[in-house]
Amino acid sequence: RAKAEGKDTYRYFEASMGAEARDRRVMEHDLRQAVARGEFRLVYQPQKEISTGRMIGFEALLRWHHPDHGDISPAVFIPVAEDSGAIIQIGEWVLSAACEEAARWKNPLMVAVNVSAVQLHNPNFSRKVHEVLLRSGLAPGRLELEITETALVKDMPRALAALRQIKALGVRVAMDDFGTGYSSLSNLRAFPFDKIKIDGSFIKSVDRNGQVAAIVRAVLGLGRGLGLPVLAEGVETLGELRFLDAEDCEIGQGFYLGRPGPIEAFGELTGVASEKEDDGAGRSRGGG
Ligand code: C2E
Ligand code: MG
Ligand code: MG
Ligand code: MG
């Protein structure tokens, strides 16, 4: 269906990149309705202990199926949702859906949820997290919020207060995409992170490129010195995985370890059955 409207879709994509303000407003409008219309769903990507291959948990990743334009990447629509403020409502949906889903799993695996800067700086955010935990019944220690450094720089005291409130609930926080954007070592000292996620751009060919290998070793040393486990994102090959294992990187995530998929694809770990009929209209995968 998306293919039949290739031209429109292309235009829509372009607009989202800032080519045309009017079309960007159309996307903002569509995003506002998307939660209520049930156009969002979550896919889950495994995070594994590298030395043993043991499953630690999943990162929840948002997917938007637009009725006319088909699947649109979060890299395209998240920035639009952030600018328009729609990310607040969308982010709440993601948090609720992920926590309700994880609360059903037969094994107490972690669930990691991405939180954008706009959400973190919203004064109601930690209260919302608390509410969602109570409502879903998920143990706070099983929730990890992934926050990029960009989210910290806007208003550092406000960001620090928000992180402390979240941590006081017993929820963990991971620094996402470390090494890109506004990376600063002082952020690691100033903010109470529980984990460092090295961006996938540093993992690509890490086993064959001395420069990125040096950077990854340095980040692993940093994690060790600070007592923070390091997760390598974007592990795509056995060679990369072997390098990370040899360097004692604790956790890995990437296509080689498991692609993002619907939770039913991981039924042996979660106990979530693949027959969709049981809750096709359920809160965790249906609309809001
Ligand atoms: P991220 O949080 O860094 O998520 C990792 C991205 O890398 C995901 O892309 C994932 O599918 C992709 N990925 C995983 N393994 C590999 C690999 O081996 N190779 C390559 N090339 N890519 C891999 P995705 O799902 O398209 O998400 C892109 C970004 O959109 C995320 O980056 C995150 O910043 C944002 N995002 C996704 N879901 C949400 C959400 O619910 N809320 C917010 N605020 N942002 C989200
Ligand atoms: Mg992430
Ligand atoms: Mg990341
Ligand atoms: Mg990323």
UniProtKB/TrEMBL annotation:
EAL domain span: 24-274
Official protein name in the record: EAL domain-containing protein
Taxonomic source organism: Mesorhizobium abyssinicae
Lineage of source species: Bacteria, Pseudomonadati, Pseudomonadota, Alphaproteobacteria, Hyphomicrobiales
Span of the entire protein shown here: 514 to 801 of 815
